[in-house]
Write a structure and sequence with these properties.
about 200 residues, six-stranded mixed sheet, elongated
Length: about 200
């Protein structure tokens, strides 16, 4: 009987997610589609764009991968967080005081970035050398970055004033290929309709 244990070495990763208290902050809805193999429709959400009403205060959290890094002891200072809003640094600190930040949303969309540095202690370097035969000189601090856009939430496509407002909202929310298909449909309809009108007038 032989017992073995496998190890997987993964890169440090970080994501930006809504804080638990930010109920108004939601991932942006990109649209819906109907699958031939399923009943009903499926809603597609962005994983890089968040939406919230204007004039609100939200909280953004940094979620780390591997997930055990989110549960380090309170006195652990191996993680360093740096937050930026529209390229301007707004907060920095360890996992205790900077793993999340409050942000006030006024009338403009913003870009929020976070950089995480995982420092390697001397004890960590010894473990890597003894376990994986990685020399201490080859182990250095690890950095991960991520950026999320926070948009001002708009009304749904069905809430519009007039035909022009509908097309403007559709053009803002629909993927580019849908816009292309819409344009081609309008062109084809015009090409078929105009000759019919001209021909009818000539016959009269």
């Amino acid at each position: 009987y032989t017992m073995s244990r496998d190890f997987e070495i993964v890169d440090l990763g970080v994501g930006i997610v809504p804080g638990e208290s930010s109920e108004s902050l939601q991932w942006k809805e990109l649209g819906t589609h109907k699958s031939f193999s399923e009943t009903g429709t499926t809603t597609k959400y962005s994983d890089t764009i968040l939406e919230t009403p204007t004039d609100t205060q939200i909280t953004l959290e940094a979620k780390l991968y591997p997930s055990f890094l989110n549960n380090l002891p309170v006195n652990d200072n191996s993680l360093q967080f740096t937050w930026s809003v529209d390229g301007k640094e707004v907060a920095t600190g360890n996992a205790t005081n900077a793993s999340s930040i409050p942000v006030v949303i006024d009338d403009d969309d913003i870009d929020v970035s976070v950089e995480v540095i995982k420092s390697m202690s001397d004890a960590d370097r010894v473990v890597f050398e003894d376990t994986f035969n990685i020399q201490q000189a080859e182990t250095s601090d690890i950095t991960a970055k991520n950026t999320t856009q926070v948009n001002i939430a708009g009304g749904p496509i069905t809430a519009y004033n007039g035909i022009s407002g509908f097309f403007a909202t559709t053009a803002h929310n629909a993927p580019e290929y849908l816009i292309f298909l819409l344009k081609m449909t309008l062109i084809i309809c015009a090409m078929l309709f105009i000759p019919m009108v001209v021909l009818e007038r000539k016959i009269r």
